[in-house]
Structures are given as structure tokens and as C-alpha cells.
Amino acid sequence: MSRIPVEAVNMEGGSNRKTGDLISCRSALMTSDMHCKKGSKCPQLEAIARTASRLGTECLVVAGDLFDDFHEEADAELFFKEFGKICSIESLPAKTIIVLSGSSHDPILDKFIVKTTSGKTLLVTRQITPLYTPKGKVVVIHGDIIIRSGALAFVINYLAKVLGQNLFLERKFREKTRLESGWLVAGHTHIYGVDAKEKIVNLGSWKKHWFKNLPYWRRSKPVVLVIGEKGLKLHVVDYL
């Protein structure tokens, strides 16, 4: 099985090392747009982490907008300090892969970073991240690489869906990058959907409220994609 090398920083000491093997997953649980509040526990992330551990899933993958209000420059130390406030690394499965958004919400990092502790590995990447699974290659993006504004991306995909073209922006990205094989998994638009023929998935969003419990205008439901030996299964989550 081929590997794509990733330069990483080991937060527990030691020099930089190649970590391409970290993005090989025997099984994976994927979600996106959790919009966790900085500085406090994130119940949706904790629930998904428990589910991944209970299912024996090797990899948990978050396709961007992990945070809601942490869009600032950060180094590895600050990132893991803030991550520890929203979820304990010890509660995660063997590997957790976070593909940060670049335009808003998530912290701005200048390099890929890795932390391994208590047998758990957390890999933080940006933009386009390929994973290798029993069902072939899965390319994970947040989606702001297509259109930076989530609001504009939502409007475009919503109108296209009304006109009968589901997952419009994701299709255009696949065409532009000539991604001819494997699955494309994205978030960003907050419009979940799947096209088995074109092998495209959008994972929706967990965000329900704006502030002071005002309903968020881009209404959606979070979706969890489970990949294993038996194939791919998409589950819509009823999250209160």
C-alpha cells in the first residue's frame, strides 16, 4: 500500500520524522463541522470519540471546523492546550486526524503537527488529506479550498440542489483536481449528502445555535461516515 509522507512535529520530543503511515486506517469514523466552543468541553466531539472507541474504530477523522471560535495563529503547544479543553486525548481512538479549515473558525497553523500520548496519536493537517482504507483512497477536505465563504458555498449548493444538482461544488472540485478514483469527503457547506456513483460525501454540520440559543440559519444535521472491511455506511445523527 502506498504512502504519502507528511512532515510532522512530535510534541513529546525528538526530531521531525516521516509519518505517512499515520494516515493508513483499517477502519474510520468521519464527521465534520463540529464547531466546538474554545475553552470548554465539546459534548458532540466527546460523544463521537466514545462511539469510535466503542466500535473499535482505528481512526476518527474531523473534516474541518472542529472549533467555532479559534481562528488565530497558533503553534502546536497552543493547539494541544486548547484541544485538551474540549476533549481528552485519552478518550480518543488510536488515531485522530483533524483536517483544519483555513478561512475561518479553526486555528492557523504553519505546519502539520502530531502528538502521541498514552498510545493515542493526534494528527493535525490542512486542506487536502488522503487516507488509505480497506476500501481504497479517501481524500478529505474541509471545502473552503473550493470557496472560502461557508455562507456563499451553502447558497450555491442549496440552489444547485433545488435545480437537481446535488453536491455541486464538490463535483466541480473533483473535476478540477482530476480526482479520478477513490472517495471525496467534505464539509463546509452544512448540506449533507452522498453520491455513491460519483463517490462524494458531504458530512453536514453539528451547529444548531448561533448565540444565546438563537437558531443557526444554515440548518443541517450532522452525518457520520463509517468505513470498514464491510464497506462504507452513512449515518445521520439526531443530535440535540
Textual characterization of the structure:
- By secondary structure, the protein is α/β, with parallel strands linked by helices.
- It has one domain (7-236): Purple Acid Phosphatase, chain A, domain 2, CATH 3.60.21.
- Helices cover 20% and strands 26% of the residues.
- It contains 4 helices and 14 strands.
- A 7-stranded mixed β-sheet has the order 6-7-5-4-3-13-14, with helices on one face.
- Strand 8 and strand 9 (136-140) form a beta hairpin.
- The longest helix is centred in the first third of the chain and has 13 residues, at 43-55.
- The protein is globular and about 50 Å long.
- The chain starts with 6 loop residues before the first strand and ends with a strand.
- The relative contact order is 0.17.
Class by alpha and beta content: alpha/beta
CATH architecture: 4-Layer Sandwich
Number of helices: 4
Enter the CATH topology name.
Purple Acid Phosphatase, chain A, domain 2
- Numbering strands along the chain, what is their spatial order in the largest sheet? 6-7-5-4-3-13-14
The radius of gyration over CA amounts to 17 Å
Q: What percent of residues adopt helix (DSSP H or I)? A: 10-25%
Whole-number total of structural domains: 1
CATH level 1 name: Alpha Beta
Uncertain stretches of 5 or more adjacent residues: 1-20
Distance between the termini: 40 Å
User: CATH superfamily, called what?
Assistant: Metallo-dependent phosphatases
In round numbers, the mean pLDDT is: 84
What best-fitting shape do the alpha-carbon axes yield? globular
Give the helices and strands as they follow along the chain. EEEHEHEEEEEHHEEEEE
Describe the largest sheet: 7 strands, mixed
Proportion of strand residues: 25-35%
